[in-house]
Amino acid sequence: MTNMNHLLALAAAAAVASGAQAQTPKAELESVQRAVHVCASCHGENGVSAKALIPSLAGQPREYTIRQLKDFRSQSRSETDIQAYMWGISALLSDEQIEGFADYYAAQKPPVGKSTQPKLEAAGRAIYEQGLPGKGVLPCKQCHGDNAEGASGFPRLAGQKADYVYKQLQAFRTPLRPHGVVMKNEIAAMSAQQLKAVAAYVQSR
Ligand code: HEC
Ligand code: HEC
């Protein structure tokens, strides 16, 4: 798919999301800005979120974003906030539009890590790099990368807000986030404190 097709897909998504009719190619192109602005109102300019419970999308691997948007559209990822914020908008998106958003965000500059709790982060780093061998917890870096940069279906975690990360780790304990069986195994034996530590660590990266 060409870049221009992506732009048009984004424009069409904006038109639907804003209830407007995109009538001329020019109007469609002008509304490209609006397309991403619909998302930016929550996820931040260029996909870098300023809010604790809203994830950054910038720098997220394309494959991961596509999977999540499809999970929202099929209503298989169904945490309360996903239902409230993402079900409605994702229902309007075609596969091509989803790919357009995924490409756009994969190309944005990722969020910069922020260290707030050095002690907790150090405990989280040990889990991130070594896992908890006695408990069957694999090192997170095996899938999420040495720098938590993610790849393909493994999300980027670096710079993601600790509150959001912690909330997702808890969500994997429930049927509301059904995909990522490996994650469910991963966290089964981890305490809330250990999840908080690793969430603080990835935010700091
Ligand atoms: C009204 C606010 C709002 C708008 C508008 C919005 N989102 Fe979201 N989005 C959220 C919230 C809140 C979450 C996280 C909910 C949770 O799991 O706690 C989320 C989650 C996501 C995720 C999952 C990220 C991850 O790391 O798993 C993706 C992808 C996403 N949104 C893409 C988009 C795109 C693309 C748009 C524009 C078409 C958009 N969102 C518009 C609020 C919004
Ligand atoms: C064997 C591979 C694997 C390992 C090891 C692993 N993960 Fe994951 N992780 C995944 C996959 C795959 C997903 C995406 C699941 C989905 O599609 O919803 C994921 C998703 C996540 C998410 C959701 C991100 C978001 O934006 O919503 C978080 C947070 C996370 N992992 C943290 C961790 C932490 C912390 C560890 C170490 C304790 C870890 N992972 C170890 C494979 C792994």
Question: How would the blueprint of this fold be written?
Answer:
Elements: H1 3-17, H2 25-30, H3 32-43, H4 62-73, H5 80-90, H6 95-106, H7 118-130, H8 141-144, H9 162-171, H10 181-188, H11 192-204
Helix pairs in contact: 1-3, 1-6, 4-5, 4-6, 7-11, 9-11
Bound molecules: heme C (2 copies).
Description:
- This protein is mainly alpha-helical.
- The chain has 2 domains: 3-106, Cytochrome c-like domain (Cytochrome Bc1 Complex, Chain D, domain 2), CATH 1.10.760.10; 118-204, Cytochrome Bc1 Complex, Chain D, domain 2 (Orthogonal Bundle).
- It has 11 helices and no strands.
- Residues 20-32 have low confidence and may be disordered.
- The chain binds heme C (HEC) (2 copies).
- Residues 55, 67, 127, 137-138, 140, 142-144, 153-155, 157, 165, 168-169, 179-180, 182-183, 186, 198 line the site of one heme C (HEC).
- The site of one heme C has 22 residues, from α8, α9 and α10.
Bound molecules: heme C
* Count of individual beta strands: 0
Could you give a short account of the major beta sheet?
Answer: none
What structural category do the secondary elements indicate?
Answer: mainly alpha
Distance between the termini: 33 Å
Q: Please tally the helical runs, counting DSSP H or I stretches of 4 or more residues.
A: 11
CATH H-level homologous superfamily name of the largest domain = Cytochrome c-like domain
Low-confidence stretches: 20-32
Helix content: 55-70%
The CATH architecture of the largest domain is Orthogonal Bundle
